[in-house]
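Example record

Each entry pairs one chain with its bound ligand, flavin mononucleotide.
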Amino acid sequence: MKKIIAIIMMMTLVLCLTACGGSENEGEAPSAAPESSASETAESPESSEDPAAGSQQNGADTLVVYFSATGTTKGVAEKIAKVEGADIYEIKAAQEYTDADLDWNDDSSRTTKEQNDPSARPEIGSDPVSLDGYSTIYIGYPIWWGEEPRIMDTFVESCDFDGKTMIPFCTSGGSGIGSSGDNLAENAESGTWLDGDRLDSGITEDELESWIEGLK
Ligand SMILES: Cc1cc2nc3c(=O)[nH]c(=O)nc-3n(C[C@H](O)[C@H](O)[C@H](O)COP(=O)(O)O)c2cc1C
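Structure tokens for the complex follow.
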């Protein structure tokens, strides 16, 4: 009788070991996935630290490009980038605009002179952006004297937007986007340009989502 009990116990032990081994093997396949997705997650913050590279390291197919002299357009651009999960690139003037440059009451201020001269093309100081891989580009700027700042023309003339959907947006003291989007499209000579809009500096993420939905 003792022999029979011993045999049954040994068989139970063998069966148990086989079953545990099986479950270890099943566990190998899923454990590989979290490891690789963890390393992907680790790369994302690096790519978002260097948005000017525009090299699509986080897989975004949307880019938000903006110029902002006093920070208003920058704030709206950052909200769009957040809502869209987009990369972001700032157009910076090689020669930064001072308060005196921005004085619209002064007939001889830098901005008054630039805006009075449709051929003015202020130099860009930020590193060039690669547009490879982006299918949609939001392009934002403040309204100066009813139009886009001339540095926006410098930018669009330096890029090839073939195959890309371009969405202009602006901020202003109250003026609408006017013909600024059309001017940019004309000077760019490439890309499919949507009408675009003036966006309020206090626009909420929900309002931005509705605006974006309305563009489709
Ligand atoms: C030189 C200059 C001209 C401007 N012209 C206009 C204008 O024609 N209409 C308007 O509503 N706001 C005008 N503004 C106000 C700006 O469009 C507004 O403050 C904008 O939100 C600033 O954006 P930013 O902070 O990104 O530079 C002008 C501002 C400057 C500096």
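Strands lie at 62-66, 87-90, 136-142, 165-171, 192-193, 197-198.
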